[in-house]
Amino acid sequence: MDNVSKTYFPRGAGEPVRALEDVSLHIGRGQVHGIVGPSGSGKSTLVRCINLLERPTSGRVTVDGRELTALSSGQVRAARRDIGMIFQHFNLLDSRTAAQNVALPLELAGVGRAERTRRAAELLERVGLGGRAKAHPRQLSGGQKQRVAIARALVTHPSVLLCDEATSALDPETTSSVLDLLRELTADLGLTTVLITHEMDVVTRVADGVTLLADGHVVESGSLAEVAATRGSALASQLVPRPVRALDAADLPAGSRIVTVDLATQDENAVIAELRATGAEVQVAAARVENVHGARVGILDLLVTQPSTHRQEIPA
User: Is the pLDDT at 8 greater than 50, yes or no?
Assistant: First the structure.
């Protein structure tokens, strides 16, 4: 996305609403990228601009080297076959079986019945619902419905998968299994997956990169490891919140202080060794540590107490 803006103009009286303003975003092939931000920040508008369900007011959208914003409406419809999409509430047709729901995009594209049936069965098996092909949505759990929706989104062999709050309606255990499936499918099928979510746990669990939106603007964007390791970053504070201290500064024992260790930039073992070399006693007062793509990030608050008989300046 290059300098994408989206403005909604009211039909009658009223002021135009700017949903996105000058948004530029690059997501690498094969990555899982999370888009986060508060309600009303423009997340859903952004994801709908990727497949031009919402055509940007200005700017360019390019997918796999093809500039979608330069295409005609008919060409855009054809290009959307390369972009799958799943939604918070599944959007399944109650009158159709799971297999028929999965096959619907192929039916609309004029694909023959035999190929539709074969492909639907293949995808349902792939998402773990091989035995539920004839079930209707009312006979399926929320997690199973979302798996059917994922299979439907993949039935046209897309290279990009858009997920708009795909786990928001699911319980934590089901959310975990659906996220694992999305990560697995992204790797196995070479997908580029874009996750719209308000849940930072979703991003931490599966994303390679993350973008924070606010009021239609990109506030921060980068790889998950880089963002989590950036001191003072708004995203870092959400990905790895500061630990809750058991002691306030006013409650510290005499001769004690709190030393904070940022694991992104400091080696806690070296800091502790340096403190103990002064004769100080060192204890962990509070900690918040996460593993982000193999990198430990977080904050340790150390309670450092210098014995009264051997007090000296405690290194910061």
Answer: yes
Count CB-CB contacts under 10 A for residue 167. 26
Buried b / exposed e over 96-122, threshold 16 CB at 10 Å, is ebbbbbbbbbbeeeeeeeeebbebbbe
d(CA 283, CA 302): 6
Looking at this protein, which amino acid is placed at residue 166?
A
Mean pLDDT of the 136-156 span: 94
| 186 and 268 belong to one structural domain | no
| 196: pLDDT strictly greater than 50 | yes
Are the C-beta atoms of 217 and 43 separated by less than 8 Å? no
- As a whole number, mean pLDDT of residues 198-219 equals 90
Residue 15 belongs to what domain range? 4-232
Question: What pLDDT is stored for residue 265 in this prediction?
Answer: 73
**Same domain membership, residue 249 and residue 214:** no
Residue 311: predicted pLDDT = 47
Q: What CATH number is associated with residue 199? A: 3.40.50.300
Q: Is the pTM of the predicted complex or chain greater than 0.85?
A: no
Query: Which contiguous run of DSSP H or E holds residue 66?
Result: strand 66-67
Same domain, 102 and 187: yes
**Residue whose pair of structure tokens reads 């690059």 in the numeric block:** 26
Predicted confidence band of residue 243 (pLDDT cuts 50, 70, 90): low
Cα dist from 211 to 42, 64, 165, 244, 246, whole Å: 12, 20, 15, 26, 33
129 within some domain: yes
